[in-house]
Amino acid sequence: MDFGIWFLLAAALVFFMQCGFMMLEAGFTRAKNAGNIIMKNMMDFSMGTIAFLLIGYTLLTAQNYAFGFIGVPNLGIFTDFSNFDFSDFVFNLVFCATAATIVTGAMAERTKFSAYCIYSIVICAVIYPIQAGWVWNESGWLAQLGYIDFAGSSAIHMVGGISAFIGAAMLGPRIGKYTIDRATGKTIVNAIPGHSLTLGALGCFVLWFGWYGFNGAAATSVSQLGSIFVTTTLAPAAGAVTTMLFTWVKNGKPDVSMTLNGALAGLVGITAGTSNVDALGALIIGSVAGIIVVVAVEFIDIKLRVDDPVGAVAVHGVNGVWGTLAVGLFATPIVAGGDVISDATGLFYGGGFEQLGIQALGVSSIALWTAVTMTVVFFLIQRAHGLRASAEEEILGLDATEHGLISSYADFLPVTNPSLQVLGGRTEGAAEGTTAMPVTPEVTPEKAVPVTDISTGQKLTKVTIITKASTFDDLKDALDAIGITGLTVTNVMGYGQQRGRQSTYRGVPLQSSLLPKIKVDIVVSKVPVHQVVETVKDVLYTGHIGDGKIFVSDVENVIKVRTGEEGYAALQDTVLSG
Question: For residue 545, what pLDDT band results from cuts at 50, 70 and 90?
């Protein structure tokens, strides 16, 4: 196998992870900020590429490495392009971009776009390359000690997670995330659900797919690559299952979004030791990560009150620490196909505390470097330029205020129940996702058919029915059977005395859950009101909460625009009458 080709293909997989991060972050935040998330993910790679090219790459990889701490910058790509290591540059670039983009989710929905661009340049140019050189440059001081971080649990994910925590803490929470109970004076933590769990889940799967390149890029043999693929599969699977079971027991139901984070936590956890642990070690690392991510998300959100919309700090920061330390616990010598895949031995495999101590020293040093430098960077940006968007911009959404984008979903109109697209009669030209209207032949006022006023002065009554959308077809058929020839249907949201279905979002109770309903309006005169009411009750009644409600009110008058008829006569021969 030509591992030079695999090296570049794996780099392409890591680049594709940018798409996964974008989808995950956009799905876990509100639709009014989706375009802003897209732009930030695009720019942290694009602007980061220029910064990494000009200075970051040589700080990380230079052979002239000063004191085991920092590479001496040069512009070899411009001065000696023919002899430049093209593959190594692309490989290191895509990993650098990953560290930068982790911050996007934690600081989402309230960060100035311009401020984020400044941050991206700085982390790609200086902060990430220097500490990554300690780990991966053969002259780096941690590499000389025998520090193991094969694919970046600490050098990439922990760095991104710590940067995300500092940025989110300095920004402050989104408007409405934390409120004060006026009666008790206590702080209430409010859940702000993302707009598309489907998009977030797709992002999770894209990231998992890309992670095979992320962890496997540096493999030098087929045996090693196969071993890495196994551990990169087992750990996230164990993380997802553990998170599902843990939230199921804890909250009464398995949490979907948290389970997605559990898979990612398992991936972050296994990244450092992916080539140094066996199957049992991978399963344990992933399982522990699946619990850690839930505890960390809730601790950061509820106790520390740092608003992280996507759980980036818990997934990448906290589990980056765990995964790196886990190498000192679970590393084991592995020889397969005649290739030495791993020669390190962790505490639980008889190696003592030496490797664990080296891992702890490396984690502490990288964390300290990141915390100090990123605090300075965000502080300077805040003082000189400003980090946070205005309250008005945040409320309107950054898509509109930062990018002039009215909506990222301009051509889409969600419909709760597809059967409501046709309300009766012949329909024509209804676009997908819209309500089809009955077709009426075009009639000008001059050609209107003369109608004799047959008003009887009968009472006009409006009956409004609010119920579950799933009952619509049965309800419509029953109303047709008693002579109701037309109705108006609206998709609505709401809750009753029970304040909707009680649930939690990422461990935080939802104060009230708006449930999808339909509202059916009919105006009757000829058909007795009591007959309509009894018919509706017979169709809707199950004896359970949520059957619906019926509202009866007087109507002063009805006027048919086409003919000018009023009252009882206006209700005859029309698609909106009864």
Answer: confident
pLDDT in tens, 160-182: 999 999 999 999 999 999 999 88
Q: 527: helix, coil or strand?
A: coil
Angle, helices 3-27 vs 34-51, to 10°: value is 150
The whole-number pLDDT of residue 106 equals 96
Rounded (5°) CA angle 510-516-519 = 140
Alpha-carbon span 397 to 428, nearest angstrom: 36
Task: Read off the pLDDT band of 515 (50, 70, 90).
Answer: confident
- At 115-127, the pLDDT tens digits run 999 999 999 999 9
Q: Using CA atoms, how far apart are residues 554 and 557, in angstroms rounded to an integer? A: 9
Structure tokens at 31: 């639709």
Distance CA 428, CA 420 (A): 14
pLDDT, tens digit (0-9, with 9 covering 90-100), for 110-159: 999 999 999 999 999 999 999 999 999 999 999 999 999 999 999 999 99
402-442 pLDDT, tens digit each: 999 988 887 664 444 433 333 333 333 333 333 333 344 44
> Contact at 8 Å (CB) between 221 and 228?
no
- DSSP strand pairing (178-180 vs 70-71): unpaired
Helix/strand/coil percentages in the chain, nearest 5 = 55, 10, 35
As a whole number, the mean pLDDT across the chain is 88
Find tokens 């984070």 and name the residue.
Answer: 261
Radius of gyration of the chain (CA): 31
List, as one string, the DSSP characters of 275-323.
TT--HHHHHHHHHHHHHHHHHHHHIIIIIS----TT-HIIIIIIHHHHH
For 401-422, give one letter per residue: b (16+ CB within 10 A) or e: bbeebeebeeeeeeebbeebee
Helix axes 128-136, 86-106, angle to 10 degrees: 130
Q: Is residue 449 packed enough to be buried (19+ CB in 10 Å), middle (13-18) or exposed (0-12)? A: exposed
pTM to 2 decimals?
0.79
Cα separation of 533 and 346, whole Å? 74
Residue whose token pair is 């619509």: 472
* Residue carrying structure tokens 């309500």: 435
